Amino acid sequence: MGLKIGAVAAGFTRDLEFDLSRVEALIRHGRRAEVQLLVLPDAALGGYLTDLSKPSLDDLPPALALDDPLISKVIAMAGEMVVCFGFCEAVGPDRYNTALCVTGDGVLGKHHKVHQPPGERSIYAAGHEFAAFDTPIGRMGMMIDYDKTFPEAARALAVDGAELIACLCAWPTSITNRAPRMNEDRQSRLFDLYDRSRAAENQVVLVSSNLTGSIGGMRFLGQSKVVGPGGDIVARTWSKAGIAIAEVDIQAEIEVARRVLYHLDERRPEAY
């Protein structure tokens, strides 16, 4: 019996009530499709920055504490479903780009974005670890967009026992050299390359969600997908909003991928 996974591509804004209603609609849609894991994009509550070239504190999305009523509402909406979503978290005076994994029973896992592109460094505090956590659907981990550029991030989660990795993204087209067609954009190619590589090199299932539409001067790629442990894309949204849904027998797929070549066991850390 497989696990029904949904990777969301959707747009979100600074209007938290609008975002909450969109999250509710996506969870409702996922529930109708019998999805057991729904991965929403980064910045699902409050939207992303409007300008990475000249960011300011005034451009930050609304900051929410973990005990904010909006977070509690998403937890209640999740019910029996495992739901991952991103937001700007307030921790004292600091602001973190945060991914949260929840069910109706509460928080299962939290990740602060570790790797930051230049535009984020002056306004977001950085996380400092990649840790897997147990859920009703198995052991998993989370990354936030730029984290997946670094092989060590997904590898740390896999070494910690994650068999499923959710990567929540606010990944735009190229800021410096945007292509006229989105599917020809350099960032479009890299987004898919990283998703497939991180899954294949760790022999895990990777669920990649992303924003769609535009915020300020940035246009987001979409391209949400579910990737198998061999690096094969089993469901995707392309550039449009929607939910990429796939049923994956995670244990069976990983066993097949690792039957002859088991990358985690074959590492030589002393040589690196």
Structure description:
The protein has 272 residues and is an alpha/beta fold. Strands 1, 2, 3, 4, 5, 6, 7, 8, 9, 10, 13, 14 and 15 form a 13-stranded mixed β-sheet that branches. The protein has a single domain, classed as Carbon-nitrogen hydrolase (Nitrilase/N-carbamoyl-D-aminoacid amidohydrolase, 4-Layer Sandwich), CATH 3.60.110.10. The mean pLDDT is 95. It is globular, with a radius of gyration of 17 Å. A hairpin with a 5-residue loop joins strand 13 (225-227) and strand 14. It has helices spanning 16-32, 69-78, 118-121, 151-159, 186-202, 250-257; strands at 3-10, 37-39, 63-64, 82-91, 94-103, 106-112, 133-135, 138-144, 164-169, 205-211, 214-215, 218-219, 225-227, 233-236, 242-248.
The number of domains is: 1
CATH superfamily: Carbon-nitrogen hydrolase
Helix content: 10-25%
Helix/strand structural class: alpha/beta
At the first level of CATH, what is the class?
Alpha Beta
Tertiary shape: globular
> Gyration radius, to the nearest Å?
17 Å
Number of helices: 6
> What portion of residues belong to β-strands?
25-35%
CATH topology: Nitrilase/N-carbamoyl-D-aminoacid amidohydrolase
